Fold these 2 entries.
Entry 1:
Amino acid sequence: MSYQGVRSVGNALGGDRALVIDDAVDLAVSTDPLVLSLVVLAVLGAVFGGWWLVRWVRRPPGTRLKRVLASYDDVAVLMHPNPDPDAMACAMGVAEIADTVETSATLQYSGEIRHQENRAFRTVLDLDLETVESSSDLAADAVVLVDHNTPRGFTGAQTVEPVVVVDHHPGNGAGTAFTDVRPDYGAASTIIVEYLEDMDATMADDDDDESEGGFEISSDLATGLLYGIQSDTNNLTKGCSKAEFDACAFLFPGIDEDDLDRIANPQVSDDVLQIKAKAITEKRVEGSFATCDVGTISNVDAIPQAADELMHLEGVTAVVVYGENDGTLHLSGRSRDDRVHMGETLRHVVSDIPMANAGGHARMGGGQLSVEHMRGIGPSDGLTCVELEDRLFAAMAGDRS
Ligand SMILES: [Mn+2]
């Protein structure tokens, strides 16, 4: 607004106020050009300060995570029990981000890495992972949780307060310094990829050892993150958001196709194939549902794989496969039938059996029950496997009696 403009507004206000504005403007202009330039500088300072504040508040999450990691010398990056490729890829990503700020990261997990693809992932990408049996095994006080949001699966897990949580599962778990939980995402690896993009990371180029100041993504990390996304979304066919496709496109130039093939198509052990064969030949089908008792087995990881195999059967929309290992009956259920919520079905079936637990999502569920308790130690009558199957069929058909 021009000086004349200000004066006319002042006049329009009328009376004393017009006089005050008049005086102020006269003062500023007539006294000293230095005062005027100071005023201009103050205005510019306020504008720039505001812009900086907005930028600071809106810092992308990848930048914020990097700063949080930079404030620790050591962090323990904790995967969920029996980690899958998505969890392992996230841990690799956090470790590489930590490395850029000279924070040392130890990758840890509880349980076992059993599934042949998970073992291949670890071997091919040469991961250095440590196991945790109790909270005293944690490598650092600062714990970063990836691909789950509440610590579980080891003694004292409930006492652990993570500083960082990065996850895509529903839940209320939070980190004391940083929380990023996106249940609409198909994989937690996708979130890590976005962090790398936030940090202007580029794919490592073998021909050029010179880093251009930015962070370079190794081919192991790019391959791991891509496989993490693929395995959590059944090769981009289930539970995907647009973010998964964007992340895969970003990773594409950096992946090692041979490594990806070695991870995705590992050799399958004889017992896994035997158990799948048993599920296929000895299944019990009623209507569009199937169950199978695969008997006593040594590799419990074969049970969900056998359930996946049975789901390929034409006309079958929900299956439960179960087998016994070391006194525990392991159940694994799958459903693509909107009428069958598998997690609820399994929960209902075991609800009156002591020491049993079961649950899961609509399309996927699992459970464990003590064989002794199922057979009815103590006062209860117990349950045979045939009766268990009858219950399973009834529950899948919607009978909640
Ligand atoms: Mn995941």
Note: The pocket of manganese (II) ion is lined by residues 86, 147, 168, 187-188, 232 (CB under 6 Å).
Entry 2:
Amino acid sequence: MSLDNFIEFRNVGFAYGSRPILENLDLAVPRGKLVAVMGGSGSGKTTLLRLISGQLRPNVGQVRVDGRDVAGMSRDELYRHRRRMGMLFQFGALFTDLNVEDNVAFPLREHTRLPDSMIRDLVTMKLEAVGLRGTQPLMPAELSGGMARRVALARAIALDPQLMLYDEPFTGLDPISLGVIALLIKKLNDALGTTAVMVTHDVHKSLEIVDHVLFLAAGKVVAQGSPDEVRRSDAPWVQQFINGEADGPVHFTYPAGRSLAADLGLQGDGHA
Ligand SMILES: Nc1ncnc2c1ncn2[C@@H]1O[C@H](COP(=O)(O)OP(=O)(O)OP(=O)(O)O)[C@@H](O)[C@H]1O
Ligand SMILES: [Mg+2]
């Protein structure tokens, strides 16, 4: 494995029961990079994140993170693996009965034995990093959707993760909050040198912030490149994705009879 790759999938196959989701999947995420994964609903994006976090194990092949085979990790190693990882999921809700401070402090109390005064200082730093200084006493119900997402982000970075996994971090946000979260994700990645994998449907916003894009379809990476390469790509269905065309020159037939555009959930209204 190349030392420069923080995550590597080698010939990974994964099925839920008898239903294959990923097949012969190879991918690499270079250390310190922010990589977007795009693909239709049900194409296996969340499954891919769960393979990285070790919640799932491949049936075939290897998932390597920081040079280590995730499937070969003992319980203790898996615990340490997850401790080095931050996750922000679409429905990764805050604990509604805890205020902002206790929400962000939660992983610190769970995983460290730091004195409470230090935990409070760390919480303050994390909240400052997401632009929410002074919100410690607020309850989740008192936050806007965008603020709640930023608190969840502060909680996700509480333990200074080496790896961040984002699953649709923009969903349900208004365009301004979406822009703020996107910029934060980018800034945190640059500032902390974190490697990050972000599943998203938002092609345009992610092309602005990520280093690399992977397109997932039919269980494999079917196209990839830098944002510029993706924008310049004349691969018809990459264009279909970017331009949000419901019907393009290429009809992918997986599973039988369904078009890729339909599977990508594209509306054909000119917006992805
Ligand atoms: N625990 C499970 N048991 C059985 N099938 C599952 C399970 N989780 C997901 N699936 C199926 O596996 C496929 C891939 O699921 P996954 O959640 O990875 O898709 P996705 O690309 O994240 O989709 P979306 O964009 O809708 O979130 C889907 O068809 C889904 O129905
Ligand atoms: Mg998903």
Note: The longest helix spans residues 175-192.
